[in-house]
Amino acid sequence: MGKQRVLSGVQPTGNLHLGNYLGAIRNWVEIQDQYENFFCVVDLHAITVPHNPATLAADTYTIAALYLACGIDLQYSHIFVQSHVSAHSELCWLLNCITPLNWLQDMIQFKEKALKQGENVSAGLLTYPVLMAADILLYQADKVPVGEDQKQHLELARDIVNRFNHQFPNRTQRTIAEENIKLRAYDIWQKSGNQNSLTNYFQAKKELEQELLKKKKAPVFKLPDPLIRKEGARVMSLTDGTRKMSKSDPSELSRINVLDSPEQIVNKIKRCKTDPVRGLTFDDVERPECHNLLTLYTLLAGKTKETVAAECADMGWGQFKPLLTETAINALKPIQDKYKEVMADKGYLESVLKDGKEKAEAIANQTLADVKAALGYTVPL
């Protein structure tokens, strides 16, 4: 039995920050040797909100290069650009047509972003979770690494799988099975030597049909399961410990980007929000910023929560902030060095994306063909 398959991706909207790295990509790197992995740059998702077309292509290459710089290994993983595989858009449309509108209107992220965008909210934002479902289902993914905020989208993808598989059995398999019944029944009829009577033919056909009904036919889509990392799944803002670190936050001070210079990291940590209490502790609901900064230190230093709790129990912020700053700079330097190396050889990066696209298309196009057969479409001539 082969390895289970994993699918995930990041939008090319601005730089990767520590939330993306610690909450997602580092987890991909740690588990990649256990799975067959497809990691895409989800540029189709990037235009569901206002975006800058002048930087989209460059940002796409940046994210792909950062995948490699962060440790994605091509021995275990394929990297590709979502829009380079047209099956994503086509399957999204097909799934849109069988997904109830109220399922999409109930999505928490849609409600939150729609409030922010007002009259500018697009149909693409509403159907964003369907595109995410198409991304996953095209590759028959067994596992999907998701943060807590994406769990609802994966649950929707699972609902779409169940709805589609129930409404549309695998027509490809059904058609083949029906043809096999006819051929086998005809063969039995011919060999019976009684070709003036159809009795043997119909009896054989009936027996074979009953035999087929006993066998469980594989559905079109596989049901994906979440792969959630408990520690570091939600890295919070440097300016508000109750809010997730986000690319969309207008303040650059709210996040540390993976490609930030040492000077920028010093400035951001120096100015991050803290409290007047001496002694640093985890899990105090009254001190969300303290918990967040200790969590960042724990993850970046590669230490256990218990070790950090003991180390920092009597510290003040004046002692802790330089410690966190040095740890962050040292943790990000190897990634930044590798990123510069990858970006210096654009031909290599393009070859990685081309190979990834070819591997992705081979699977995606087969899934799309099965979906269209189940829906009753004709085969292109």
Task: Give the helix/strand layout.
Elements: E1 5-10, H1 18-31, E2 36-41, H2 43-46, H3 56-70, E3 77-81, H4 87-96, H5 101-105, H6 108-117, H7 123-126, H8 128-138, E4 143-145, H9 151-167, H10 171-192, H11 199-213, E5 225-227, H12 262-270, H13 288-301, H14 305-312, H15 317-343, H16 346-375
Parallel strand pairs: 1-2, 2-3, 4-5
Helix pairs in contact: 3-15, 4-8, 4-16, 8-9, 10-11, 12-15, 13-14, 13-15
Catalytic activity: tRNA(Trp) + L-tryptophan + ATP = L-tryptophyl-tRNA(Trp) + AMP + diphosphate + H(+)
Enzyme class: ligase
Function: Catalyzes the attachment of tryptophan to tRNA(Trp).
Q: Gist?
A:
This protein is mainly alpha-helical. It has 3 domains: 5-168 and 345-375, 3-Layer(aba) Sandwich (Rossmann fold), CATH 3.40.50; 171-214; 252-343, Tyrosyl-Transfer RNA Synthetase.
Quaternary structure type: single chain
Low-confidence stretches: none
| Fraction of helical residues | 55-70%
Rg over alpha carbons: 26 Å
Number of domains: 3
Give a count of the beta strands, DSSP E runs of length 2 or more.
Answer: 5
The CATH topology of the largest domain corresponds to Rossmann fold
CATH superfamily caption of the largest domain: HUPs
Distance between the termini: 35 Å
Structural class: mainly alpha
**Mean of residue pLDDT values:** 88
Proportion of residues in extended strands:
5-15%
- What is the global morphology? elongated
The number of helical elements comes to: 16
Reported CATH architecture of the largest domain: 3-Layer(aba) Sandwich
